[in-house]
Specification:
312 residues, alpha/beta, 9 helices
Length: 312
């Protein structure tokens, strides 16, 4: 692995114009411009649609198996970002998994505070089930706030008595909206992308009058019993390191099969920088192997691929 690659990425992020905790409208514009500044590869197709009245963007890469779906939850501290903004990273995961990715455009705070994002995520997944796609052919993937939302959605599905997906993979999950992990302080000087102050601002926007320890907002405080296999990837140079470690510990305490991967000296959602960082490519390959392994354990050799539409 190249130390120069890590240094170049750190410098790039420190000079980025995005202020996660700043004016919401301005942050959304800057984030969108950053995420779409590099065109998608020509072999990637994006298609807007709806699932359960929730907007989604379907991302297809060559060889995608229509029987398998990655339900993808974007990041942005619950206030910025969109399904379209997540298409590049979703495509990287899709390509390595050999499956289409469906990015959920859940409602954002402060206009739509908790539990709007959870409600939208449950609705989108339920619509996939209603279309005849079984849970064991669906895998959840989420990054940052979308990583916390991924796990919160799993808890909500369990509480509603709905089938779980085959697995869940989360990149740098924001799992504690109280921002109380020790790394929020100890890693602040190393994190080039996030600050505790910015996260606390966005947490207030999302939570409204809800306590930060609410399990469906902060799954680090949830009962995770009955959740599917979970892969957690995080960098050691980010303030959310403790969120990932605590989430993994809590999953293990509740008998969930969990794998925690801490990648040294890389920043928040480093997987998004595969074009310039060797570790990102390795992490994506590891995540894809995890997803495929859990599909392989559930797929019948004679199972036929259903023909489905992503509109409902």
């Amino acid at each position: 692995m190249s130390g120069q690659q890590r240094r170049d990425l750190d410098a790039m992020l420190r000079h980025a114009p995005l202020d996660v905790g700043g004016d919401v409208a301005e942050a959304r514009t800057v984030f969108h411009e950053m995420m779409t500044s590099i065109p998608l590869p020509p072999d990637v197709t994006t298609t807007p649609g709806q699932l359960g009245c929730v907007p989604v963007v379907t991302v297809d890469t060559p060889g995608s198996d229509p029987a398998d779906v990655l339900l993808y939850f974007h990041g942005g501290a619950y206030a910025i970002g969109s399904a379209a903004d997540a298409a590049s990273l979703a495509a990287d995961v899709s390509r390595r998994c050999g499956a289409r990715a469906v990015c959920v455009d859940y409602r954002l705070a402060p206009e739509n505070p908790f539990p709007a994002a959870v409600d939208d995520s449950v609705a989108a997944y339920s619509a996939l089930l209603d279309q005849g796609i079984p849970g064991d052919r669906i895998a959840f993937v989420g990054e940052s706030a979308g990583g916390g939302l991924t796990v919160a959605t799993l808890v909500a599905l369990r509480d509603a008595g709905l089938p779980q997906p085959s697995s869940a993979t989360v990149f740098s999950p924001w799992a504690d909206l109280t921002v109380s992990g020790a790394s929020a302080t100890s890693k602040a000087h190393l994190d080039p992308a996030l600050t505790p102050q910015a996260l606390r601002t966005r947490a207030r926007d999302y939570l409204g009058q809800t306590a930060g320890t609410e399990p469906l907002a902060s799954p680090a405080f949830a009962d995770l019993t009955g959740l599917p296999p979970l892969l957690i990837q995080v960098g050691s140079h980010e303030i959310l390191l403790d969120d990932a470690v605590r989430l993994a510990s809590r999953a293990a305490d509740h008998d969930v099969q969990v794998e925690l991967q801490v990648w040294p000296q890389v920043p928040h959602v480093f997987q998004a920088f595969a074009v310039m960082l060797d570790e990102a490519g390795e992490a994506l390959r590891s995540a894809a192997a995890f997803v495929r392994a859990h599909w392989a354990t559930t797929k019948s050799p004679t199972e036929a691929a259903p023909v489905t539409s992503l509109s409902s």
